[in-house]
C-alpha cells in the first residue's frame, strides 16, 4: 500500500495543513423542499447531500417497534463521484457505511417519542475525496435537527490517522490511500463517547490513544460548525425579511 | 438556578439552557444537573419554567385539538386521514356523522382527497389517533383552499386572545378555520384568499421575530391598498 | 400515501386553468425559474446541476474506453441512466431502476441520440476495436415536478461541460484534455394536459392531476428529434402540433441560456 510520497514538508502536510488541522468545511441547512430535513456539506473535496424523511409509519410493517421509531440510513455514491465510474445501485461498501452511520446517529436520537415509526436518512455523495462517511454523518445529524427530530445532542464526526509514523487529523486523499492508518470517529459531545469507530492499518496502543484524543478534538471543531450552520439558517431568514 | 442562554434565542439540540431545579416542559431534556435543548428551536423562559418551541417538525397530536386533514384511504368502516402527524388519523363511520343509514359504501360519504375538519377524540397509547366530526362546525370542507404551515406556529396565527386571526378575518372578509395541525382553510374572494395565504406564510416564516402583529398589519394594509 | 392531493386543491387548480391561470401565478406557457450550474462534481469528466422551480437534478458524465457494439463498429458507445433516489421524494424507493426512472432515462437518451448532438464517429479510437464509452448518470435530488426537462437539460449541460483526456492510438490517456465532439443542443419541453388546457413545465401538483403529457425534444434548427406521450390519456392532432410549435420557442430560450453558460465556461 505504501508509496514513496513525501507526506511532510517543513512540518506541513501535502495540502499545506498542520498535523491537527481540519480541511475547510461548509454546511448548508434546508437545501431541499421535499424532504422533512436536509443539508449539504462541502468538506475538503467532498460534496455530499443529505435528506431526512420522517418520522412516519414504518413499512414493511414487520419492521415496526412498539416502543420507538427505527432509524434507516442509506449511503450512496453517485457513479460519477469517483475517478473510476462506480456501477449505479447498492454496493457492499455503501451498505456497510449505511449500517455504521445508523449506529453512530441512533444513540443521540430520542426515538421513543415515535413508536411504530421510521426515520430515514439518505446520504448521497456527489464528489468523493476521502472521509465521506464522517462528512456524511456530520451532515446527516444536521439534517435530522432540521427535520425537527428530537435528540440528546448533535453528532459530529471526523477521522484521525497515521502517516509517516505521525498521528494526523482528517486524512486527505493521498494520506488515506498511502498512509499507515485511518480511524474514522463520531462523537457524542455531551457524554464524551464515540459512536462511530472503525480502523484500518497499523497503530500501537499509544498511537491509538493519541489518535482518539486528536479525533475528539476534531469532532468538537466540527460540532461548532454544525451549530453555526443550523443557527445561520434562521438568523439569515430574519435579515432577508426585514 | 442559572440561565445559560437568553430568552427567545435560537438553540440547537444538545445545547445547555439552564442549571438548577427548573420545571422543564417540551423540547428539553436533562443531563446531570443541566437542562439541555432536545430540538432545534426557540427558548422561552417563563417564571420557573423553560421550554423550547421547535422550529421544525411534524404535528404532535393532542386530545381535544381541532385538525384539518385529507382522506388518504378508506377501510371497511373508517377512513384514514393525513393530518401532518407521524401517523395517519382514523375516523370511524360512527364518529363521522350523526346519522349514518348505510355503511356499505363509505366512498359515498367521504372519498379519497376530501378535506375534513375534525376533532381529536383520543390519542391511544400506541399513538392511534381517533377523530370525530359529528357536530358542526366539523365535517367536510367545500371550496376555498388549505395552506399548510408548521404546527408549532399555529398559536402565532391565532395571536394573543385571537387578535391575529381576527385581524386577518376583518381585513380580508375571508372565512378562516385554523387546524392545530398547521392546516388552515381559507374561503373568500380569490384575491383576498391570496392575501391571507401570503400573510399566513409570513407568520410561519417570521413567528420567532418580535413585532409580528405590526408587520402583518402593515403588510395587509399595503396589499389591500393596491 | 403522503401524495394524495386534496379535492379542494384539484378543484381550485382546475377553476384557475379555465381562466388561463395557474396556482403558482404562471401563465400556461411559462417555465418555472431555471438555474444551470456547470462543473459541480470534479471527479466527473463533465457535470451539471439544474434547478427547475424546486426540482433539483445533477447529471455527471464518465468516459471510459471499450469495444464498440458489433453493429456499429465506427461509433462510440453512449448510455444514459437515471436514478430516482429515495432522497428526492418520500415515494421513491431504493433498489433497481423501475419503470419511471427507465422511461425518464430513455426520453433523455433519445433526445440526445436522435438529434445527433454527439458526433459518435469522432469517438472511435480504432475502428471495430476501441471506442470511447460515455455514461451520463442523472441523479434526481429533489422531485417537485417535470423531471423530463430538468434531466434533459442537465444531461446536455454535462456533456458540453465534459473535458476528457486525449487518447493515443492504443487508447492510453495523454496529459492533454479535449471536449466532446458536440454538434447540437437538444432541449426537451414537457407539456401537461389538464381538463383540456395544455400547460408547459408542470409542477408536482399539476402532474398529480394531469390527464396526460407530451415531451417534445427540439434541435437548434427547429427540427423535432424525439417525442413521447406519457401517462394515461390522449391528444388531438391540433394539440400535438401546438405543443411542437410551443416547444420550439421555449426550447430556443433554454438553448440560449445553455449557450451563455457554455461560453462562460471557455
TrEMBL record, chain A:
Exoribonuclease phosphorolytic domain span? 21-150, 156-218
Keywords for the protein's UniProt record, in alphabetical order: Cytoplasm, Exonuclease, Exosome, Hydrolase, Nuclease
Where in or outside the cell is it found? Cytoplasm
Its EC top class is hydrolase
> For this chain's UniProt record, which GO biological process terms are given?
gene expression; nuclear-transcribed mRNA catabolic process; rRNA catabolic process
Gene3D superfamilies given in the database record: GHMP Kinase, N-terminal domain (3.30.230.70)
Q: Name one GO cellular component term.
A: cytoplasmic exosome (RNase complex)
Q: Care to name a GO molecular-function term for this sequence?
A: RNA binding
State its role: Catalytic component of the exosome, which is a complex involved in RNA degradation. Has 3'->5' exoribonuclease activity. Can also synthesize heteropolymeric RNA-tails. Catalytic component of the exosome, which is a complex involved in RNA degradation. Has 3'->5' exoribonuclease activity. Can also synthesize heteromeric RNA-tails.
The name this protein goes by in its record? Exosome complex component Rrp41
From TrEMBL, chain B:
Q: Which Pfam families match?
A: ECR1_N_2 (PF22625), KH_6 (PF15985), S1_RRP4 (PF21266)
Q: Which HAMAP family match?
A: Exosome_Rrp4 (MF_00623)
Record's protein name: Exosome complex component Rrp4
Q: Which GO terms describe its molecular function?
A: poly(A) binding
Cite the InterPro entries for this sequence: Exosome_RNA_bind1/RRP40/RRP4, KH_dom, KH_dom_type_1, KH_dom_type_1_sf, NA-bd_OB-fold, Rrp4, RRP4_N, S1_domain
**Organism, as annotated:** Candidatus Methanofastidiosum methylothiophilum
Gene Ontology CC annotations of this record:
cytoplasm; exosome (RNase complex)
Q: Which GO terms describe its biological process?
A: CUT catabolic process; exonucleolytic trimming to generate mature 3'-end of 5.8S rRNA from tricistronic rRNA transcript (SSU-rRNA, 5.8S rRNA, LSU-rRNA); poly(A)-dependent snoRNA 3'-end processing; U4 snRNA 3'-end processing
The record's family statement is: Belongs to the RRP4 family.
Extract the PANTHER family matched here.
EXOSOME COMPLEX COMPONENT RRP4, PNAS-3 RELATED
According to the record's subunit comment, the protein's assembly and interactions are: Component of the archaeal exosome complex. Forms a trimer of Rrp4 and/or Csl4 subunits. The trimer associates with an hexameric ring-like arrangement composed of 3 Rrp41-Rrp42 heterodimers.
Q: Where is the S1 motif domain?
A: 62-134
According to its UniProt entry, the function of this protein is described as: Non-catalytic component of the exosome, which is a complex involved in RNA degradation. Increases the RNA binding and the efficiency of RNA degradation. Confers strong poly(A) specificity to the exosome.
Annotated keywords? Cytoplasm, Exosome, RNA-binding
SMART domains assigned to the protein according to its UniProt record, in alphabetical order: KH, S1
* NCBIfam families found in the cross-reference section: PRK04163.1-1
The protein's superkingdom reads: Archaea
Question: Subcellular location, in the record's words?
Answer: Cytoplasm
Tell me which residues make up the K Homology domain: 141-205
**Predominant subcellular localization, coarse grouping:** cytoplasm
UniProtKB/TrEMBL annotation, chain C:
- List cellular component terms (GO): cytoplasmic exosome (RNase complex)
Family matches, as Pfam families: RNase_PH, RNase_PH_C
Q: Which UniProt keywords apply?
A: Cytoplasm, Exosome
Any one GO MF annotation of this record = mRNA 3'-UTR AU-rich region binding
Mainly localized where? cytoplasm
> Which BP terms in the Gene Ontology apply to this protein?
rRNA catabolic process
Where is each Exoribonuclease phosphorolytic domain found? Answer: 31-165, 185-245
Record has Transmembrane helix as a keyword? no
Q: Does the keyword Cytoplasm apply?
A: yes
Quote the subcellular location field of this record. Answer: Cytoplasm
Q: What does this protein do?
A: Non-catalytic component of the exosome, which is a complex involved in RNA degradation. Contributes to the structuring of the Rrp41 active site.
Into which family does the record put it?
A: Belongs to the RNase PH family. Rrp42 subfamily.
- Which HAMAP family does this entry report, sorted A to Z? Exosome_Rrp42
The record's annotation in NCBIfam families points to: PRK04282.1-1 (NF003282)
Per UniProt, subunit arrangement is:
Component of the archaeal exosome complex. Forms a hexameric ring-like arrangement composed of 3 Rrp41-Rrp42 heterodimers. The hexameric ring associates with a trimer of Rrp4 and/or Csl4 subunits.
What protein name does the entry list? Exosome complex component Rrp42
Q: Which organism is it from?
A: Candidatus Methanofastidiosum methylothiophilum
Per the record, the gene is rrp42
